[in-house]
């Protein structure tokens, strides 16, 4: 918890450093149903009529020939088998091309999570907990914990913790750890545990228990002021899984405080205590606003400077939908004004 404030600065400095490299470095980490009519065979009917007339004309010379099946019967006999095969093929194709509306919520969420797991800042820093889809389906509790674990165990998370520890070591930040290699190792471990605890509790366990969505839903359209206020508000507000309405983010705030309390177990006594825990918890929550602002506006910067679209066209779709809505509202106002005249 103690290193969250500097970690954001370090991440931003590292991002700016990466932007100084050549552009080749910035690879954006990226039913119709078949029915076959079955004609009734003619031979059994003809045979039945001759058999019925048999007692009257037992020596009829044409009777044996009438009992022979017509030439068209063999061609029609495979029809049932062909119909069954066609039906089976149609059902297989229908299963392979399962409509989007028939997919379960779990299946849709899995597809969207896989999409999120390809999101990386300048192809390096993971941004798995950001959704560019405002209509994304809710995740299950297990999916939330799995996504939080995926983010926390990414190799970049270890690198960020090491950078934070090194920064404090060079800054001679005396919080009770020794100096030198031993102190650097302890600072590194403490910084990573801060990140691990906060992420797993605030983005995984509590959201699963409280049915809150831990992701940042990027707005991506509207005025700069509106987007800025929106990104700041998301640190204390989140969407409920069932109602999809905004409510206080007990998961994020509570996760920061609980993670701060756990950090008392591995930080020196001089930097522990209830007051310190609450202060750091609320401080980390406030600092998260800067991260949300960065997440909101980064795709715009990426398209402008790197000519890469992290949203894969979703921003353009939302802007088009927003413009279509505004045009429809204007037309409705014009129609209403014309009716009054």
Tell me what the structure shows:
It is built from 13 helices and seven strands. The two termini are 65 Å apart. It is elongated, with a radius of gyration of 34 Å. The chain is mainly α. The N terminus is likely disordered.
Query: Uncertain segments of ≥5 residues (pLDDT<50)?
Result: 1-61, 63-82
Mean pLDDT: 77
Question: How many helix segments?
Answer: 13
Q: Largest sheet, order of strands side by side? A: 4-6-7
Note the beta-strand portion. under 5%
Question: Quick gist of this model?
Answer:
The chain has 341 residues and is mainly alpha-helical.
Secondary structure elements and their pairing?
Blueprint: H1 4-19, H2 43-53, H3 63-66, H4 72-76, H5 79-96, H6 105-116, E1 120-121, E2 125-126, E3 130-131, H7 141-152, H8 155-170, H9 181-210, E4 212-213, E5 216-217, H10 224-233, E6 237-240, E7 246-248, H11 250-263, H12 274-306, H13 314-340
Parallel strand pairs: 3-5
Antiparallel strand pairs: 1-2, 4-6, 6-7
Helix pairs in contact: 1-8, 7-9, 8-9, 9-11, 10-12, 11-12
């Amino acid at each position: 918890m103690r290193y969250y404030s500097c970690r954001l600065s370090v991440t931003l400095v590292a991002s700016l450093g990466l932007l100084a490299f050549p552009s080749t470095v910035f690879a954006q980490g990226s039913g119709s149903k078949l029915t076959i009519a079955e004609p009734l065979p003619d031979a059994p009917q003809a045979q039945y009529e001759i058999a019925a007339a048999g007692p009257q004309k037992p020596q009829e010379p044409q009777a044996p020939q009438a009992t022979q099946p017509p030439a068209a019967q063999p061609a029609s006999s495979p029809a049932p088998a062909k119909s069954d095969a066609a039906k089976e093929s149609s059902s297989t194709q229908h299963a392979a091309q399962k409509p989007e509306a028939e997919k379960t919520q779990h299946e849709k969420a899995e597809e969207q999570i896989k999409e999120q797991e390809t999101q990386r800042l300048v192809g390096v820093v993971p941004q798995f907990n950001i959704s560019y889809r405002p209509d994304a389906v809710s995740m299950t509790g297990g999916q939330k914990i799995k996504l939080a674990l995926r983010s926390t165990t990414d190799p970049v998370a270890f690198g960020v913790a090491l950078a934070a520890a090194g920064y404090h070591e060079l800054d001679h930040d005396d919080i009770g750890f020794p100096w030198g290699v031993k102190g650097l190792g302890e600072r590194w471990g403490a910084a990573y545990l801060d990140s691990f605890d906060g992420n797993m509790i605030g983005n995984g366990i509590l959201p699963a228990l409280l049915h809150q969505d831990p992701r940042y839903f990027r707005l991506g359209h509207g005025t700069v002021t509106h987007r800025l206020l929106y990104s700041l508000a998301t640190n204390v507000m989140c969407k409920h899984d069932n109602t999809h309405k905004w409510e206080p983010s007990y998961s994020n705030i509570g996760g920061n405080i609980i993670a701060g309390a756990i950090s008392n177990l591995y930080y020196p006594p001089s930097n522990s205590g209830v007051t310190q825990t609450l202060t750091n918890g609320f401080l980390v929550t406030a600092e998260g606003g800067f991260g949300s602002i960065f997440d909101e506006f980064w795709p715009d910067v990426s398209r402008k400077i790197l000519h890469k679209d992290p949203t894969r066209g979703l921003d353009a779709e939302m802007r088009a939908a927003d413009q279509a809505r505004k045009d429809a509202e204007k037309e409705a106002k014009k129609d209403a004004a014309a009716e009054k005249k």
